[in-house]
Amino acid sequence: MDNTTDQQKTHTLNGNNHKKGNKFEAIAQGFLLKKGYLIIATNFFSKRFGEIDIIAKKDDVITFIEVKGRNSLTFGTGDTSITRSKKRKLIRSCQHWLLKFDIRNDWQIDVIVITHDFENKKYYLKHYVNCITQLDF
To answer: Which of 2-11, 17-26, 63-72 has the largest mean confidence?
Structure first.
């Protein structure tokens, strides 16, 4: 488990997108742990709806976290890549997970966007709390 903050990261990312995604997710997990979240699961996959990057709990609220990482701003920040379709799949994946494990807690969907600044050898993290809701549809 990686417990460093977004400002302390200096690793160069190499390899495929999966490895990069895992790196960004590890940074997000470390951030969440420092904020008092308990990590319940990572990379929960539903064939029908897709993947949930991180499932965590804080103050009896289940939080589903979508992690978006960027090594460059050429294609915009990570949050711009969350389409309406992706939001819908996320909500359905979360509902599926809650039903599968018979969880009745309050829940929300957060997004963590991480940008890697190669020049300064730092990672910058932005946490959007409860930013995707069923009311979006």
So the answer is: 63-72
